[in-house]
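Obj.: predict assembly geometry.
Materials: sequence records (below).
Method: joint structure prediction, all chains together.
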Amino acid sequence: MEAAKMASPKSAPKDAQVMAQILKDMGITEYEPRVINQMLEFAYRYVTTILEDAKIYSSHAKKSSVDADDVRLAIQCRTDQSFTSPPPRDFLLDIARQKNQTPLPLIKPYSGPRLPPDRYCLTAPNYRLKSLQKKVSSTAGRITVPRLSVGAVSSRPSTPTLGTPSAQTVSVSAKVGAPVSLAGQRFTVQIPSSQPAGKSGTPGLPGAGN
Amino acid sequence: DRQTLVAVLQFLRRSNLRESEEILRREARLLGDDLGGNVATVATSSPGVAAVAAVPPGKGEVRGDCGVGPCSAGTLGGTASVSSISSPSSKITHSGDVIGGAVVVEDQPDVSAVLSAYNQQGDPTLYEEYYSGLKHFIECSLDCHRAELSQLFYPLFVHMYLELVYNQHESEAKSFFERFHGDQECYYQDDLRVLSSLTKKEHMKGNETMLDFRTSKFVLRISRDSYQLLKRHLQEKQNNQIWNIVQEHLYIDIFDGMPRSKQQIDAMVGSLAGEAKREANKAKVFFGLLKEPEFDVPLDDEDEEGENEEGKPKKKKPKKDNVGSKSKKQDPNAPPQNRIPLPELKDSDKLDKVMNMKEAARRVRLGPECLPSICFYTFLNAYQGLTAVDITDDSSMIVGGFADSTVRVWSVTPKKLRSVKTAADLSLIDKESDDVLERIMDEKTASELKILYGHSGPVYGTSFSPDRNYLLSCSEDGTVRLWSLQTFTCLVGYKGHNYPVWDTQFSPYGYYFVSGGHDRVARLWATDHYQPLRIFAGHLADVTCTRFHPNSNYIATGSADRTIRLWDVLNGNCVRIFTGHKGPIHSLAFSPNGRFLATGATDGRVLLWDIGHGLMVGELKGHTDTIYALRFSRDGEILASGSMDNTVRLWDAVKAFEDLETDDFTTATGHINLPENSQDLLLGTYMTKSTPVVHLHFTRRNLLLAAGAYSSQ
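Observations (raw structure tokens):
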């Protein structure tokens, strides 16, 4: 990190100078120059959010202008929403006491990879193949290619396994050469909108739960 | 105060004091709006005398027993009844209905938070007078006492300032701060800067650390003579106010013995909560190592046993031969084998142990004459921002956690990283062949580097499992992720901390892991439970560093409140508190024999602690910047430390631990005289070319590996 270069007084706008002074007062001496811009943006966004909320509250109370009480209320509501702080110490001590009372669970020997139940893992595939009702009887030699459809799920999904498709569904690539006329059959791949179990590790998905 | 009233009612209800609650409720309704802004203050009990406040008949009265520290009291406007949260030694009696026996009230969550309001100990404008009076007294006292009594300045200053702020005397608070903040010790400057920005009561609400500081007692350790002197002075009439403040917010741990010198005190103070009470460090800790299981080893002798054969704290023998010392006695300092459930030894683990022993036979014996070679892995062009590094025990893989939320694994040996074949291919291989473990690997995926995506925030901690099958990473997004090193995919995301997780580590036996984060707790997890097994709560600020003891029964956590705590995995109790650092702790290392702990912090000092006795036994000065890496050599002869000042320093651990005299321990004063021998212990300083050292690792043959990211300034 480079040391802070104070912009020369004639070129920096006044609020940037104020922000630099605030950083100096808080004892922060080394920061990248863009930190000031970021802090200013944040300050602007915060203040406008608060004032907008305050306007809403004052108009709700049928006041003619915004006063300090409205602003105070706006600050309070926003604090509870965006600036959450970790739980207080006594609460932590309490749950710690509860949690620490249960004895440590015994470990089952020889149980393979020790992972939580599947629904808490990220090992399930995040897609599901669905087959529509195929024709009931088929001769032994005839291979029916099931239809795959996009859209809402109508049947209950089977419990997710580690990637092996169930017997009914057939991946599209495997049966391309099936000796069945494909005319009139619609092939679409279904991507369920709701995930059956967890989410896989694709980048960008929010990771923090509540 | 409406809130206070509600809390008191709840408390009464919970303690089954129905009648009192009834009465209070009735009276409260009568008072109605009077409670609004009117906070009449009542002086809390002066020492030795139980408070007898004016009590309307039938109202519940709660007395606080005065030891050296009654707890804070809240007030109810108008009625002048006193309710207080008691320490375990207080009683609750009622004038009228007598509740049998003493009711021990532990941490009542909601009540204590609300009722821990500061009392007005007299006129706010006189605070400066009180403080300067005390200052004058202490400066005029005898030299030998002055150092000890000066410890009072800081906590008193902070508490008085916070009291003024809390009771909304802003101008007095500001002038009080202006006048006296320069007198405080230099190592408190960071805290004072934070305090200077707290000028209103609303500011205090968001700052959890300050709230904890307010409600917990600052511990001071003073010799009996100094204490008598102080007490006598403060109990004179005009100084009663300060005495009340001392009573309320400080806990004075008195010891019999010589008053400590300034140097001794400076070594041990610095944490946010003062020092540690002596009885906090008296619990028995099983610091010995677990017995290695016996099994047939082709070449070498049998297992390594715990090295403490006798129970007495011995001087650490420099050339102890681990291989071949068969002690059939159970080491009294070692925990029983089944104290905590541990996973069984698999065949692959046994093979690993055999390898380990073979390597151990070829290990270089280190010492002052034979220093280790250092091999430094520099991460070049790490624009992603290297934030965490770990190396496997057998030094075959390195993992780097980066600020762009990726986790990258490299193979250090010529053998590349491969992932397992897909299920379809696996069904085709011959399962009975000898090299089935090779065949399951997919050659097409061989590469030197694997990148793991999944986190949504910078990765602050990484840890390999001892069997090299799993990798853990913890991140600012609040989750800890378990990755498989056989498929290089993410297996589980453990959610529990909702705030950045700063550090994580696997247990030396696998299966358990610990994580510590911004929410000021450390959690113990097992890989097959989606919720933590243990929660270690007690720190006043973020937990920045978490390490397992070699016997996996204890966890050390270092925190931003500048203390290190040792927790027992079995029941979650805090068994040791170590104070002395002047900045947040960023590195911890247990010695291989389990007896000692080395810690490094932003103040550039490495402190050495004896776990069994709970004492600081060494201080290594030399680094000029934060120490992020500490590691003992495989046999514990050398301690290596790496820091932000771009150096790796090697210290003589044998010498540091062998000069301990048992007499000092048994005086039970809680401290020993630290020798000023940092220079003698320093064996070497090795400078890198502007690369801060982030990780250190001794290979099984005692070659030192170091890692860091090149930073160009």
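Conclusions so far: Confidence is low (pLDDT under 50) at residues 32-117, 299-325 of chain B.
To do: check interface contacts against the pulldown list.
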